[in-house]
Specification:
By secondary structure, the chain is an alpha+beta fold. Helix content is 30%, strand content 23%. Strands 5, 6, 13, 14, 15, 16, 23 and 24 form an 8-stranded mixed sheet that branches. Strands 17, 19, 20, 21 and 22 form a 5-stranded antiparallel sheet that branches.
């Protein structure tokens, strides 16, 4: 929405613009308070001041989902993300579980949104082409006291209207999941649970939102927010964005963002979860997500068959002060594998091919914090820990409704694009299908990643769709996710990134600033203050 006069109109009324008249202009799109037009250092007269209707802070699965929902309407929306690509925070370290809806306690916002969110994932996956499968889950019991807990959870799900929940006896468990521990006496089966690639979902959601007009700003950490009578002004990555409303979906940093506008809530604490990915030789050891009987504070260490077939075990649940602490540890590894073996004795740490950690945002009260605040136009969407991924589509719809209640004009947009181009995954094709593709594009005949069978054509497509880093390629294509963890494909992937971006190999990073793979000698000297 153009809120102020454009530069061309100013020129007609007042003559050409000059930098001398506008000394405050430093950045493209900056607002000159003297003439009330937006100016560009490269071409001053082509820009008009664009005041956003909504600015979303945070590009995890929650922020990306909200962005897509908002671009259904005739409004101007921006999303700012501190990382070099969306989904690079907590979302990339998510377990990827779509919860069945029966584990979450009633009487909480989590409980209200989890089942509604669960139901939206099928449609989203069909529209946006990311990996999703309903594989069901089993929550197991080792003694009579745990059986009672499972019966309570099962009844909770039935009261919510979730279909198919049932208790399984030991013989049924042996039949359905023969690799589970023989000490398990009963299990609660939830057929509505599933698994998803969360980073793929982030990329698809944001690609769809951008296609529908979203102004996406990455590598843009928010450092200040001020508010006058009508607008918020957000300083992000050196740019200034003016917006009528702000959605704080900044994950573990939501408390810091809220403090910028003078709020004392929410209070966010970090809870680190370590996860361990196993070699694909263990694919099929279980077909369903396996939960231990939950405690009051944790769902415990799970055994998760991911969408792509690998088995993942974890997470831990460790309180941390450093909200950016994503280190793994020997202590965490030992705890995870001891508990995973209790569920599935055939699992071994020797099969671990990758380990990672994420920090979950835990709000006071252990529930989601979603809604307007005492600062008009500023909404918090915070404390989105498990089952936040499952609830994400429902959270997005709720936030849009709340923004409407706050005065946002939600006039539907004509021509909203619901879908994005579905990427090709060579590993899922037959030899005949792949050969046919290669006759049209020889890049499908060039294998970049041997472990996961990723072709050059897939790498090039991912770069065209927004991948700027090795992790961006990995999460879009799986290049580097296999047994050798990028030992074979990293140089080839870097070469393609450099070629298509016009950068040098030394400029290519794993996940943004500070994660370079190779450096030129002079760059190393600059980093080390001239030391060799």
């Amino acid at each position: 929405m153009i809120d102020l006069i454009g530069a061309s109109e100013w020129k007609m009324r007042n003559g050409p613009l000059s930098r001398r008249e506008h000394p405050k202009v430093r950045l493209k799109g900056a607002l000159c308070e003297h003439c009330r037009v937006a100016l560009s250092l490269s071409c001053w007269e082509r820009e008009a001041v664009m005041v956003k209707d909504v600015a979303i802070i945070g590009g995890g699965v929650i922020g990306c989902g909200i962005a897509r929902e908002l671009t259904r309407y005739r409004i101007d929306v921006a999303l700012v993300e501190s990382e070099v690509e969306v989904g690079f925070g907590t979302s990339k370290s998510n377990s990827g579980i779509i919860h069945g809806g029966h584990h979450t306690d009633p009487g909480t916002l989590k409980g209200e949104l989890v089942w509604a969110g669960n139901q939206r994932w099928v449609e989203l996956a069909e529209e946006l082409g990311f990996g999703f499968r309903r594989n069901g889950d089993l929550t197991v019991a080792f003694d009579d006291a745990e059986v009672e807990t499972l019966e309570r959870i099962g009844q909770q799900g039935k009261d919510r209207g979730i279909p198919g929940i049932e208790m399984w006896s030991a013989p049924r468990i042996r039949r359905e999941e023969p690799n589970l521990s023989g000490d398990i006496v009963a299990a609660l089966h939830g057929p509505t649970a599933g698994v998803v690639n969360p980073y793929e979902a982030c990329f698809a959601l944001i690609e769809c939102a951008v296609a529908n007009g979203l102004d996406l700003r990455v590598n843009a950490p928010v450092t200040a927010i001020t508010k006058d009578t009508d607008f918020f002004e957000i300083v992000a990555g050196g740019d200034r964005i003016r917006s009528r409303m702000v959605v704080n979906a900044a994950g573990v940093h939501a408390e810091a963002v809220a403090r910028m506008v003078g709020l004392t809530e929410p209070v966010i604490r970090g809870r680190k979860g370590e996860e361990y990915l196993l070699d694909k030789r263990l694919a099929g050891i279980v077909s369903r997500t396996i939960f231990p009987c939950p405690t009051e504070t944790s769902k415990g260490v799970l055994v998760i068959p991911t969408f792509d077939g690998a088995i993942m075990v974890g997470p831990t649940a460790q309180a941390v002060e450093d909200l950016d602490d994503v280190t793994t540890s020997a202590v965490g590894s030992a705890a995870v594998f001891d508990l995973a073996r209790r569920l599935v004795p055939g699992i071994s740490e020797r099969d671990c091919i990758a380990e990672f950690a994420g920090v979950r945002a835990v709000a006071a009260g252990n529930d989601f914090v979603i809604g307007p605040t005492s600062v008009p136009g500023f909404l918090n969407v915070a404390g989105i820990q498990s089952p936040g991924l499952t609830a994400a589509p429902a959270i997005a719809e709720l936030v849009v409704e709340m923004l409407g209640n706050e005065g946002l004009d939600l006039s539907p947009k004509t021509g909203f694009r619901r879908t994005v181009h579905r990427p090709v995954h060579a590993a899922s094709l037959s030899i005949a299908e792949l050969a046919e593709l290669a006759t049209r594009d020889r890049n499908y005949a060039h294998v970049v990643c041997r472990c996961e069978l990723v072709t050059e054509a897939e790498i090039r497509d991912a770069i065209k769709r927004g991948a700027r880093t090795l992790d961006g390629l990995k999460f879009r294509t799986r290049a580097g996710m296999g047994r050798c963890q990028g030992g074979f494909c990293t140089p080839r992937s870097m070469k393609l990134l450099a070629e298509m971006s016009g950068e040098s190999m030394a400029d290519i990073t794993k996940r943004g600033e500070g994660s370079w793979i190779v450096r030129e000698p002079d760059q190393l000297q600059d980093q080390e203050g001239g030391a060799q």
